[in-house]
């Protein structure tokens, strides 16, 4: 286990370096500079470029960035003059993660119930209703739900604040809007997988042994059906918790998703790099966690085995 | 059994590591830090006793350091929390603010300001002449974005310092004593007073700035204010609170007690908040104009942002003046503004927009030259045929460099439709690229036609006129006319304001009518909704536009 962890850690590091390198050079190909003000004259642009070291060859800039990165320094934002990238990210990840986490928990729970009901009452009215809901949830973009929630719940009925970020009640609508996709995804996966597992021989065996239905479902069916769900939940969690542009924009949530798109638009190089790396790190780490979870869910998946893979 | 416990523990751990810390930061973000609790709760109180204005910005404040700020939100906040030597009144005219007295030498080159005795910082300490000298030189020491404003102001040595030939310390500004500031110019500048109200020229208290190190201006309590309001709260990317500054020299004339500013990036969200009573003023886009046209809260503001076509003056066919004029005339501007844009924009038949600048007698600049480049489609057709003949071609294909915004796309398609129909042999190829790239292409002059835009730096026609001098950084189309260059130079240093105005009228005529250097398209309109109880909200044509200074809440 120890050796495996170490090896995985090594891979993670290499992956991060590759991502940092690719992002850096791709980003340099973006048109424009962080100083896009059309008032700046040549001399001033030159002065600004010199101040930030952008007058040097890209290769040198890259080496400098990487050596700073190794020392844990993500640099300062170009747009938010004097503010560090770490500060920008840490200020904005909170709200994103909060609504993301809530949406994930709520979405998974509801999705689980819908999916399991669907599978157990296969081809019943209940099943069709839940499938229809799932398809709707998957195919209607979340901003439609967001706009509807904002208009009816927020404005017309005045039950919850329609936007802004001033207290806990302000997180509810964005959470609901965000959870729709999660509900739909989870429900669909669970249903399909459970239907698959229920027809397996070992389920029949378990039943034949006289195990009661509840135990069969929880211990044998659900547990095996969870593997693909876990695979999918990892990346989904990262996606949803690092912020979603549209939901954050609609509800005026001071989150990371909106910030990322903004920094690309204004060529805020250091923030683009910072957020990309942060996101990549979380993603890689989540994949790692999911791999470990596999082993616990299904002992046949062997973490120590490196030989089989070569 | 053991395994299952492990699984549970791990899931829990995973959930906690990924989210545990976020819960905390989420909470600290949504709850105001101790000193700002007042700011957060006042909105829930009945507002009858307190006059509160609720506004929004579409972005976070990047910085409050006047030496570095370079975009709208910072400018807006500084404009309402700071005061320069001059300030602009409701009509955009400069009046003495922090400086109580302004003496000018006979040659118009040395300006001596006396700081008001009651000019104070928000911490109660006096504003001194040293504060101005410090902040002005800081712009050059730290390569601030807006150092070019010193060039516009004509401060001595500004250009040389920018080029690295002189040191920031040699800038033509000097504190004679605590109360006396001396500014030396390169040449007499008729716009001097007007420009001095700009945020780049605000003072900074050296001791305070240095005590905050590189964190100056990054939090509400890491800045000092000497203007009508001061920030008492700033939650990043969420909003900030202004309260009346009791130490402001003109505090007696401030009616508002508090301003709540929020960050709202979406128009429809802002509208929802407006309807639910959390915002008092909202800027609309064209899709809402028809819906609210009849609403008593609806207003159209004519902004001085102009849109025009740049011609590449080195293009073999566009070199021909008749071709350019035909392209400028052969389409229906009214159709564009009324049907396609429908947001309060209006056709522009000149360089300087209307309601932007008036002469001493109150006559609008636009009235002097009237409609330039205006003619019928038939006239345009005749010019087109003649121009093509002169250029020796029968048809021409032109690329249009434009941003990839909805607005630019709509304009491009309209132009293509109109021009191709009216000018036989013309093919337009629309090249919509990201805004940054549009600017790069324009600067490199790698286009045939470019959909350009310009907003004024200061409230004087010169801000549009000096764009087109040979080699100017805003020219971006290789237009060059020595006569034009010379006249601009003359007008720039002419302190006889009436003559200068006439010179600028003449210059516009040369550029638009004689040379057809560009084809003006329209002047942007801004559609807004404003609660009827908000009085005297002043939106000035030049940045920073939003002025809360005179606002009163009459509920």
Textual characterization of the structure:
The complex is a heterodimer of chains A (310) and B (555). With 310 residues, chain A is mainly α. Chain A has 2 domains: 8-71, no CATH class; 90-266, MetI-like fold (Orthogonal Bundle), CATH 1.10.3720. Helices cover 73% and strands 0% of the residues of chain A. Chain A is built from 12 helices and no strands. In chain A, helix 4 packs parallel to helix 12 (269-297). Chain A is flat and about 85 Å long. The mean pLDDT of chain A is 88. With 555 residues, chain B is an alpha+beta fold. Among the domains of chain B are: 86-212, Dipeptide-binding Protein, Domain 1 (Dipeptide-binding Protein, domain 1, Alpha-Beta Complex), CATH 3.90.76.10; 307-523, Dipeptide-binding Protein, Domain 3 (Dipeptide-binding Protein, domain 3, Roll). In chain B, 35% of the residues lie in helices and 21% in strands. Chain B has 19 helices and 21 strands. Chain B has helices at residues 2-30, 37-41, 72-81, 129-141, 148-153, 158-162, 192-195, 206-212, 267-275, 286-292, 321-329, 333-341, 365-369, 377-391, 406-422, 435-443, 462-465, 482-493, 497-514; strands at 52-57, 86-88, 94-96, 99-104, 110-115, 173-177, 180-184, 229-235, 239-244, 258-263, 281-283, 298-311, 346-347, 396-403, 426-433, 449-454, 518-530, 534-535, 538-539, 546-547, 552-553. In chain B, strands 11, 12, 13, 14, 15, 16 and 17 form a 7-stranded mixed sheet that branches. Chain B has a 4-stranded mixed sheet with strand order 1-10-9-8, covered by helices on one side. In chain B, strand 2 (86-88) and strand 3 (94-96) form a beta hairpin. In chain B, helix 11 packs antiparallel against helix 14 (377-391) and helix 18 packs antiparallel against helix 19. Chain B is globular and about 75 Å long. At the A-B interface, helix 2, helix 4, helix 6, helix 11 and helix 12 of A face helix 1, helix 9 and helix 16 of B. Chain B: Residues 94-474 form the Solute-binding protein family domain. Chain B: Belongs to the bacterial solute-binding protein 5 family. Chain B: Residues 27-45 have a biased composition (Polar residues). Chain B: This is Peptide ABC transporter substrate-binding protein. Chain B: Keywords: Peptide transport, Protein transport, Signal, Transport. Chain A: Belongs to the binding-protein-dependent transport system permease family.
């Amino acid at each position: 286990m120890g050796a495996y962890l170490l090896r995985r850690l090594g891979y993670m590091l290499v992956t991060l370096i590759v991502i940092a390198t690719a992002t850096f050079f791709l980003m340099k190909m973006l048109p424009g500079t962080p100083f896009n003000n059309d008032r700046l004259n040549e001399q001033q642009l030159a002065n600004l470029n010199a101040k930030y070291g952008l007058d040097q060859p890209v290769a040198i800039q890259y080496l400098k960035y990487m050596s700073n990165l190794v020392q844990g320094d993500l640099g300062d934002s170009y747009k938010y003059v004097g503010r560090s990238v770490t500060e920008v990210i840490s200020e904005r990840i909170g709200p994103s993660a909060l609504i993301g986490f809530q949406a994930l928990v709520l979405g998974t729970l509801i999705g689980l119930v819908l999916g399991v009901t669907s599978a157990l009452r296969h081809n019943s009215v209940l099943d069709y209703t839940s499938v229809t809901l799932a398809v709707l949830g998957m195919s209607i973009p979340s901003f439609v739900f967001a706009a509807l929630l904002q208009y009816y719940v927020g404005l017309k009925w005045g039950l919850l604040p329609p936007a802004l970020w001033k207290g806990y009640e302000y997180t509810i609508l964005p959470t609901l809007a965000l959870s729709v996709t999660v509900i739909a995804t989870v429900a669909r996966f669970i249903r399909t997988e459970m239907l698959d597992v229920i027809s397996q021989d070992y389920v029949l065996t378990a039943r034949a042994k006289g195990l009661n239905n509840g135990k069969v479902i929880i211990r044998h069916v659900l547990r095996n059906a969870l593997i693909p769900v876990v695979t999918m939940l990892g990346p989904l969690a990262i996606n949803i918790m690092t912020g979603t542009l549209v939901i954050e924009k609609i509800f005026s949530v001071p989150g990371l998703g909106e910030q990322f798109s903004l920094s690309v638009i204004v060529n805020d190089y250091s923030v683009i790099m910072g957020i990309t790396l942060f996101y990549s790190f979380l993603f890689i780490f989540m994949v790692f966690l999911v791999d470990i979870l596999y082993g616990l869910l299904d002992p046949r998946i062997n973490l120590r085995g490196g030989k089989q893979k070569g | 059994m053991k395994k299952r416990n492990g699984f549970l523990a791990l899931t829990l751990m995973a959930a906690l590591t990924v989210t545990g810390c976020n819960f905390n930061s989420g909470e600290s973000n949504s709850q105001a830090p101790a000193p700002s609790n007042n700011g957060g709760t006042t909105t829930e109180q009945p507002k009858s006793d307190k006059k509160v204005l609720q506004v929004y910005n579409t972005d976070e404040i990047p910085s409050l350091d006047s030496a570095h700020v370079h975009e709208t939100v910072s400018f807006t906040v500084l404009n309402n929390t700071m005061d320069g030597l001059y300030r602009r009144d409701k009509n955009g005219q400069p009046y003495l603010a922090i400086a109580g007295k302004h003496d000018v030498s006979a040659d118009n080159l040395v300006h001596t300001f006396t700081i008001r005795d009651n000019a104070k910082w928000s911490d109660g300490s006096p504003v001194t002449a040293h504060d101005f000298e410090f902040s002005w030189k800081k712009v050059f020491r730290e390569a601030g974005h807006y150092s070019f404003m010193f060039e516009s102001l004509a401060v001595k040595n500004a250009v040389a310092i920018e080029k690295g030939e002189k040191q920031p310390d040699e800038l033509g500004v000097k504190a004679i004593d605590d109360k006396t500031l001396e500014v030396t110019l390169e040449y007499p500048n008729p716009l001097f007073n007007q420009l001095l109200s700009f945020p780049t020229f605000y003072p900074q208290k050296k001791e305070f700035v240095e005590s905050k190190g590189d964190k100056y201006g990054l939090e509400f309590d890491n800045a000092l204010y000497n203007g009508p309001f001061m920030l008492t709260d700033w939650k990043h990317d969420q909003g900030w609170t202004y309260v009346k500054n009791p130490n402001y020299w003109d505090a007696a004339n401030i009616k508002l007690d508090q301003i709540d500013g929020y960050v709202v990036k979406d128009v429809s969200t802002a509208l929802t908040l407006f309807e639910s009573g959390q915002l008092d003023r909202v800027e609309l886009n064209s899709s809402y104009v028809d819906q609210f046209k009849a609403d008593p809260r609806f207003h159209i503001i004519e902004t001085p942002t102009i849109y025009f076509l740049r011609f590449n003056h080195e293009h073999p066919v566009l070199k021909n003046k008749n071709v350019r004029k035909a392209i400028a005339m052969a389409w229906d501007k009214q159709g564009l503004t009324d049907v396609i844009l429908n947001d309060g924009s209006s056709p522009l038949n000149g360089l300087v927009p209307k309601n932007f600048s008036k002469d001493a007698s109150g006559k609008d600049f636009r009235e002097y030259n009237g409609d330039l480049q205006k003619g019928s489609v038939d006239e345009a057709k005749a010019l087109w045929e003649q121009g093509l003949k002169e250029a020796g071609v029968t048809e021409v294909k032109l690329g249009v460099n434009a941003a990839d915004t909805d607005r630019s796309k709509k304009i491009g398609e309209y132009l293509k439709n109109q021009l191709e129909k009216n000018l036989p042999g013309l093919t337009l190829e629309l090249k919509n690229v990201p805004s940054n790239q549009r600017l790069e292409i324009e600067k490199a002059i790698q286009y045939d036609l470019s959909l350009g835009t310009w907003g004024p730096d200061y409230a004087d026609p010169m801000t549009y006129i000096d764009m087109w001098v040979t080699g100017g950084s805003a020219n971006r189309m290789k237009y060059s006319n020595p006569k034009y260059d010379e006249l601009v130079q003359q007008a720039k240093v002419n302190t006889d304001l009436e003559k200068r105005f006439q010179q600028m009228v003449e210059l516009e005529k040369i550029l638009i009518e004689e040379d057809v250097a560009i084809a003006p398209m329209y002047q942007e309109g801004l559609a807004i909704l404003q609660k009827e109880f908000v009085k005297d909200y002043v939106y000035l044509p030049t940045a920073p536009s939003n002025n809360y200074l005179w606002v009163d809440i009459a509920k």
